[in-house]
């Protein structure tokens, strides 16, 4: 075996149940890898079907269709590509049915010579968004059997390709302390392949880099990681970001949050260099070959050093590597860039996959609807840049019922996007009542103008008054008043905004975006059939604190993008009209702010994080507030009131969370009861834990406030 081999990792935007399309994208990835002279190609976890097939994973007909799809991939690979000049081994994630009923999360390993075996996942993800044990059986470490139908080994296998030893960790396998890589080190592997379906969350990419780098260093291997891409099931966004590490360092990074169907990342690796760390390590190596699958193909680059270097430089030019600007992002700048790109990806997929002609937003001139509208624009800006004008135009044309204005020769593509395309794709509507202000109207107008959206304004006060008169007709001696019917009179304004904008969405074949956020979802500070109306809740996975900071960042700093002219920032200056305001629903005659109605958003979001991430109850959260500095800003009893109000509202409104629109998972936490945090609709309201918190305050108030 020679020293060098070329490893490729590919990200795919797969679609549940689209077997024909999924097969084609797999074959595109294989063809791109062939052109780059890749020897070993890794595709993501469950890439053949998509990760988000949910309960269909247990359907026999679904699994039979998966097997047919695998046969088609291998047949096309082995027959059409007979002129391929060098050997290539492919690892492809798929569900695998064992005769008798069990379903396994597996990796099919095949080459031009055919199917060689299956590696099966050992640790199944079951936290947060994941419910893998509902569908799959975990595989026992060290066990290998012969699949009765395919007649190849399946299980905890190591592939030996002419002396190049390859082992596998599948997604969750690498996140746990007792990861299979420990055993693979003992089994003397040279390469560990990790096919993953790791959904996006802010900051998660950094963690992936850490375990990939550490896997390479600790196990003395080349470590390759491939992830899915796109908004598969409509809520989970996969951010790609393939990685290859060697000698304990990340040596190649694939692009992230790109709307292309296939992204290929590849590089030349030195196998012998990684073997040195195993040679000098004092730990003994097992020589047990019983679970090895031997393949009579050579996956090495046999050329002389200068030829290898030349081929390497040629191949790198076709790489879908991470744009350079990502490497210089840190802190909030990195987090807000990730969020902008992730939601833009999600909105693009919803429009393209539903074949709808864009979006409608009830733009109030506030922080939430302002961010939603700008993200629709950013989604188009990114897609145009990533796909190029020709492909972008063809995708948009498939969504719009009317023909799109073509870009003229020499026309600036950004002006073309804003002036010709955006008015067709985004319709913003400001719906005023007698409580609306000129400030929010102006903000809505200016933001719409800057992003090129169509903008309209109508007055819904006559509708509100008509509903009020109808109800007053049933209470002739007790008419509605702000003194005793505050919530009722606020909510009818929010609800009256829904029917008209739904009519526009229906007539225009557009998707109405709900504008509720994560903080409001926790406290039920949203009107059902009002601001919760829509098809997709684009920012429901973001806290209000983050939304306010993001709007300021988009105004002052801007979202980074790799443009034709190089790296630049997309700043949205007109967001200043939103950022100057305090968040307000504008539903009362008197001055109203969200934080006066609820509590400071920074406290609300801190309590939410303590509850969901640290899994704390009221007394522990109060103590956490005190020791992290909030005791210097607020009296301990005021903090106690905040905690009590948060839990009472949280427990009173779980039915709202069940009834709100599906949204994207963005931050580490989520309140989606269908996929993340399940909570009883009927409950005691945390009355006993709150009583314990107040007893703590009563007995420790002097010490606690110090």
Description:
- The protein is of the alpha/beta class and 706 residues long.
- The chain folds into 3 domains: 4-322, Nitrilase/N-carbamoyl-D-aminoacid amidohydrolase (4-Layer Sandwich), CATH 3.60.110; 327-596, Rossmann fold (3-Layer(aba) Sandwich), CATH 3.40.50.620; 599-706, Arc Repressor Mutant, subunit A.
- An 8-stranded mixed sheet has the order 6-7-5-4-3-2-1-16. A 7-stranded mixed sheet has the order 15-14-11-10-9-8-17. The protein has a 5-stranded parallel sheet with strand order 20-19-18-21-22.
- α2 links the parallel β2 and β3.
Would you tell me the structural class of the helices and strands? alpha/beta
Biggest sheet, spatial arrangement of strands: 6-7-5-4-3-2-1-16
Shape: globular
Approximate strand percentage:
15-25%
Reported by name, the CATH topology of the largest domain is Nitrilase/N-carbamoyl-D-aminoacid amidohydrolase
Regions with little confidence, pLDDT below 50 for 5+ residues = none
The average pLDDT score comes to 91
What fraction, in percent, of the residue positions are helical? Answer: 40-55%
Biggest sheet architecture: 8 strands, mixed
CATH superfamily of the largest domain: Carbon-nitrogen hydrolase
Number of domains: 3
Q: Based on the coordinates given, report the CATH architecture of the largest domain.
A: 4-Layer Sandwich
The whole-angstrom Rg is 28 Å
Total E-strand runs: 24
CATH class of the largest domain: Alpha Beta
Number of helices: 24
Ends distance: 69 Å
């Amino acid at each position: 075996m020679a020293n060098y081999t070329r490893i490729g990792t590919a990200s795919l935007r797969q679609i549940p149940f689209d077997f024909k399309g999924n097969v084609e994208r797999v074959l595109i990835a294989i063809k791109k890898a062939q052109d780059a002279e890749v020897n070993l190609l890794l595709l993501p976890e469950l890439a053949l079907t998509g990760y988000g097939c949910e309960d269909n994973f247990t359907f026999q007909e679904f699994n039979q269709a998966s097997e047919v799809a695998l046969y088609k991939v291998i047949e096309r690979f082995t027959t059409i590509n007979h002129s391929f000049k060098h050997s290539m081994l492919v690892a492809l994630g798929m569900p695998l049915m064992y005769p008798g009923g069990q379903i396994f999360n597996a990796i099919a390993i095949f080459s031009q010579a055919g199917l060689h075996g299956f590696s099966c996942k050992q640790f199944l993800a079951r936290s947060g968004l994941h419910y893998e044990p509902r569908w799959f059986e975990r595989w026992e470490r060290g066990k290998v059997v012969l699949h009765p139908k395919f007649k190849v080994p399946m299980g905890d296998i190591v592939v030996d390709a002419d002396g190049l030893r390859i082992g596998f960790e599948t997604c969750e396998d690498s996140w746990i302390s007792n990861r299979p890589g420990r055993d693979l080190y003992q089994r003397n592997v040279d390469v560990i392949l990790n096919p993953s379906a790791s959904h996006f969350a802010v900051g998660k990419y950094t963690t992936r880099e850490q375990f990939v780098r550490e896997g390479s260093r600790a196990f003395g291997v080349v470590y390759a990681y491939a992830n899915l891409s796109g908004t598969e099931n409509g809520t989970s966004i996969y951010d790609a970001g393939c990685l290859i590490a060697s000698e304990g360092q990340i040596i190649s990074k694939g692009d992230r949050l790109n709307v292309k169907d296939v992204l290929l990342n590849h590089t030349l690796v030195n196998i012998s260099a990684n073997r040195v760390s195993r040679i000098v390590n004092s730990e003994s190596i097992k020589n047990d070959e019983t679970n090895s699958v031997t393949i009579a193909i050579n996956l090495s680059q046999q050329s002389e050093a200068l030829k290898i270097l030349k081929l390497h430089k040629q191949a790198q030019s076709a790489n879908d590597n991470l744009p350079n600007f990502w490497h210089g992002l840190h802190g909030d700048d990195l987090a807000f860039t990730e969020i902008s790109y992730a939601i833009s990806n999600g909105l693009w997929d919803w429009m393209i996959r539903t074949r709808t002609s864009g979006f409608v937003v009830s733009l109030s001139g506030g922080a939430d609807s302002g961010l939603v509208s700008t993200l629709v624009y950013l989604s188009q800006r990114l897609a145009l840049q990533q796909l190029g004008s020709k492909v972008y135009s063809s995708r948009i044309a498939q969504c719009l019922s009317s023909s799109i204005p073509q870009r003229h020769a020499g026309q600036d593509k950004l002006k073309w996007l804003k002036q010709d395309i955006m008015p067709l794709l985004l319709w913003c509507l400001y719906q005023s009542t007698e409580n609306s202000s000129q400030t929010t109207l102006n903000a809505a107008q200016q933001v719409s103008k800057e992003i090129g959206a169509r903008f309209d304004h109508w007055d819904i006060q006559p509708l509100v008054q008509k509903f009020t008169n109808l109800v007053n007709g049933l209470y002739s001696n007790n008419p509605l008043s702000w003194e005793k019917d505050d919530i009722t009179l606020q909510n009818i304004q929010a609800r009256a905004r829904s029917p008209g904008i739904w009519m526009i969405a229906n007539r225009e074949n557009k998707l109405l975006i709900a504008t509720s956020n994560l903080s409001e979802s926790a406290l039920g500070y949203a009107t059902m059939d009002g601001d919760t109306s829509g098809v997709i809740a684009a920012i429901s996975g973001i806290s209000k604190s983050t939304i306010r900071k993001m709007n300021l960042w988009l105004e002052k700093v801007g979202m980074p993008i790799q443009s034709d002219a190089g790296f630049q920032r997309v700043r949205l200056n007109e967001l200043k009209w939103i950022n100057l305001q305090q968040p307000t629903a504008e539903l009362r005659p008197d001055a109203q702010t969200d934080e006066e109605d609820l509590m400071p958003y920074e406290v609300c979001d801190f309590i939410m994080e303590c509850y969901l991430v640290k899994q704390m109850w009221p007394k522990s959260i109060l103590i956490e507030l005190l020791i992290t500095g909030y005791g210097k800003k607020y009296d301990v009893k005021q903090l106690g009131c905040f905690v009590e109000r948060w839990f009472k509202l949280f427990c009173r409104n779980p039915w709202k969370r069940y009834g709100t629109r599906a949204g994207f998972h963005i931050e580490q936490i989520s309140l989606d009861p269908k996929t993340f945090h399940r909570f009883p609709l009927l409950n005691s309201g945390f009355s006993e834990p709150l009583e314990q918190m107040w007893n703590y305050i009563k007995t420790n108030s002097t010490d606690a406030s110090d």
